[in-house]
């Protein structure tokens, strides 16, 4: 019996990896070598990765198995049809068939739903007897003890950066609503015996090693023991973790001591509100800079996962994010567009709200806008994504992020970025609007003075707050938040492109020193064609009388400006 296992690829897409790209930075997906290891030894198995090899539909095979991710589903179905038209049976499995088994079955003879262990062996036996069933569904969670080692010997090792890939855990301890991992692995985080992981590592040839776990540090006790166990092996390895690893100095030291030199970190968004809405609030935006610095200072190259298109994202998110990555010298980044992947809570939410407009699964690759964002058009999201790629992998940006004398592996970091630059140059240039640039520049903090301040409260309460209008803080505000104590005005903007309305949220202290700059920026925004500017004073605690008078004067001559949460009695007292 001859079994052909295929990993499909969209070779006609501008986003597809070339063979040169794959050799430069990529490693094989582990699903096919795992299936090959589960296959009885009397079956002749061949692996075909379409990113490095063309499919020969006339190749002799008794059974074809295809591992399917959502964006590769159309290509997988096309391959399946070709083989089935030649009388060859086809089995589909993986994340997409598990999420949409009936759709997959319409394009195959059989579908594996869930993890393969325990199912694949039975499927092969049924096929040999001519009793192949339409579905093989995982009803429990397979044991991770004594798993056979993936058949890396069947891979074309010289076609990849490395084939030394393995998995110490399955699933993730978190449940981010946009991620398909949680659904596939049954909302669990399971761990292989450390002795099994060490044994598999010992079977690999020398070379760079990749842990393909979704979170290599998801269980502290396990990770501490794993890192200690592999330390004597002298590995050079990379993997994926959450930012929480930076909060644990001991665990971070253990990771470095075991040979960790690179980590993919799911930063996703610079907005805490965005993260909270998709159940990733455990990421703390205010700690991003500190966390990234800790990784870099420990010699760990950081690849940041960044996603655009959250409900709180407006046009300013693109430039703001790139500048953050540059300022914090993030080694590499993989920008993506938020995508409603089948099987995820985010997909169900977008379906319920009627916001999905593109049903072509080829576009569900994190590089296409497939749903209607809240604060911008799909076109603006797409153009911004293109712009980010070109800006991030421009030579000035690469130099700014990567050339850091104290950081090791400079040539490797430059090489990875150059590969991404080569890929970015294959896609459209994109762009961001003048409004987006102005929105970005109006945000941030401005230093205020401490003279002649009044609270954003009715005048009757001023005496109660013990305000010294000639200077100094109210005694009752001595323990107030940082913006007040440090005399800072924090400015945040949100732009709703659909109704051309900008909301400006002010927080802290507003005085005449900053109001002129603020008014100048508002006028520039209005000149771009913005319909309305809403200024929210809810978080402003102290005013200067002159500053407030200037704002009221502006409002009097600009019908498109609206004030919110400014106490009416304060306005009357000016």
Q: What is the element layout, followed by pairings?
A:
Blueprint: E1 2-7, H1 19-25, H2 31-38, E2 44-49, E3 63-67, H3 73-85, E4 89-93, H4 95-99, H5 101-105, E5 110-113, H6 120-128, E6 135-137, E7 165-166, E8 169-171, H7 181-184, E9 189-191, H8 194-202, E10 209-211, H9 220-230, E11 237-241, H10 249-257, E12 260-268, H11 272-277, H12 288-297, E13 301-308, H13 317-327, E14 332-337, H14 345-353, H15 378-392, H16 395-402, H17 410-424, H18 434-442, E15 444-447, E16 453-455, H19 482-485, E17 488-496, E18 501-510, H20 512-527, E19 532-544, H21 545-557, E20 561-564, H22 568-573
Parallel strand pairs: 1-2, 1-3, 3-4, 4-5, 5-6, 7-10, 10-11, 11-12, 12-13, 13-14, 18-19, 19-20
Antiparallel strand pairs: 8-9, 15-17, 16-19, 17-18
Helix pairs in contact: 8-9, 9-10, 13-15, 18-20, 20-21
What does this entry show, briefly?
The protein is α/β, with parallel strands linked by helices. It is built from 22 helices and 20 strands. Among the domains are: 2-137, Rossmann fold (3-Layer(aba) Sandwich), CATH 3.40.50; 436-573, 2-Layer Sandwich (Transcription Regulator spoIIAA).
Structure in words:
The chain is α/β, with parallel strands linked by helices and 574 residues long. Among the domains are: 2-137, Cobalamin-binding domain (Rossmann fold); 436-573, STAS domain (Transcription Regulator spoIIAA, 2-Layer Sandwich). 35% of the residues lie in helices and 19% in strands. The chain contains 22 helices and 20 strands. The protein has a six-stranded parallel sheet, with helices on both faces. Helix 9 packs parallel to helix 10. The model is unreliable at 459-485 (pLDDT under 50).
């Amino acid at each position: 019996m001859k079994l052909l296992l295929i990993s499909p690829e969209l070779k006609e897409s501008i986003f597809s990896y070339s063979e040169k790209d794959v050799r430069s930075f990529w490693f094989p997906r582990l699903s096919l070598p795992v299936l090959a290891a589960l296959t009885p030894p009397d079956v002749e198995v061949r692996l075909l990765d379409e990113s490095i090899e063309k499919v020969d539909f006339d190749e002799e095979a008794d059974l074809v198995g295809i591992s399917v991710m959502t964006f590769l589903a159309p290509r997988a179905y096309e391959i399946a049809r070709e083989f089935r038209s030649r009388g060859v049976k086809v089995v589909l499995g993986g994340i997409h068939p598990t999420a949409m088994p009936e759709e997959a079955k319409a394009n195959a003879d059989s579908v594996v739903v869930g993890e393969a262990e325990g199912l694949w062996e039975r499927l092969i036996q049924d096929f040999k007897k001519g009793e192949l069933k339409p579905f093989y569904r995982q009803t429990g969670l397979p044991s991770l003890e004594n798993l056979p080692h993936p058949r890396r010997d069947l891979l074309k090792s010289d076609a990849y950066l490395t084939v030394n890939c393995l998995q110490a855990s399955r699933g993730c301890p978190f449940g981010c609503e946009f991620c398909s991992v949680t659904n596939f692995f049954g909302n669990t985080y399971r761990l292989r015996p450390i002795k099994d992981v060490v044994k598999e590592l010992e079977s690999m040839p020398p070379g760079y090693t990749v842990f393909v776990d979704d979170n290599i540090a998801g269980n502290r006790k396990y990770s501490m023991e794993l890192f200690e166990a592999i330390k004597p092996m002298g590995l050079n390895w990379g993997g994926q973790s959450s930012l929480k690893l930076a909060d644990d100095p001991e665990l971070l030291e253990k990771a470095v001591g075991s040979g960790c030199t690179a980590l993919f970190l799911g930063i996703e968004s610079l907005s805490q509100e965005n993260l909270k809405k998709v159940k990733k609030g455990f990421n703390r935006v205010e700690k991003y800079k500190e966390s990234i610095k800790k990784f870099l200072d420990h010699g760990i190259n950081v690849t940041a996962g960044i996603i655009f298109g959250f409900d709180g994202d407006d046009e300013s998110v693109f430039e703001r994010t790139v500048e953050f990555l540059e300022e914090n010298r993030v080694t590499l980044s993989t920008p993506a567009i938020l995508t409603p992947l089948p099987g995820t809570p985010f997909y169900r939410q977008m379906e319920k709200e009627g916001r999905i407009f593109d049903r072509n699964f080829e576009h569900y690759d994190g590089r296409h806008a497939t749903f209607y964002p809240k604060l911008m058009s799909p076109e603006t999201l797409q153009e911004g994504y293109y712009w980010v790629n070109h800006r991030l992998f421009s030579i000035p940006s690469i130099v700014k992020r990567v050339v850091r004398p104290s950081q090791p592996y400079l040539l490797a970091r430059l090489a990875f970025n150059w590969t991404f630059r080569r890929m970015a140059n294959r896609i459209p240039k994109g762009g961001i609007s003048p409004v987006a640039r102005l929105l970005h520049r109006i945000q941030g903090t401005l230093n205020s003075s401490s003279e002649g301040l009044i609270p954003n409260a009715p005048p009757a309460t001023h005496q109660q707050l013990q305000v010294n209008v000639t200077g100094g803080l109210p005694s009752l505000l001595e323990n107030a938040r940082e913006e007040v104590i440090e005399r800072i005005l924090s400015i945040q903007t949100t732009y709703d492109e659909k109704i051309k309305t900008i909301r400006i949220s002010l927080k802290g202290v507003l005085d005449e020193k900053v109001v002129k700059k603020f008014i100048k920026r508002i006028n520039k925004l209005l000149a771009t064609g913005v319909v309305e500017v809403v200024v929210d004073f809810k978080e402003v605690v102290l005013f200067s009388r002159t500053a407030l008078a200037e704002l009221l004067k502006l409002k009097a001559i600009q019908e498109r400006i609206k004030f919110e949460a400014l106490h009416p009695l304060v306005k009357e007292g000016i």
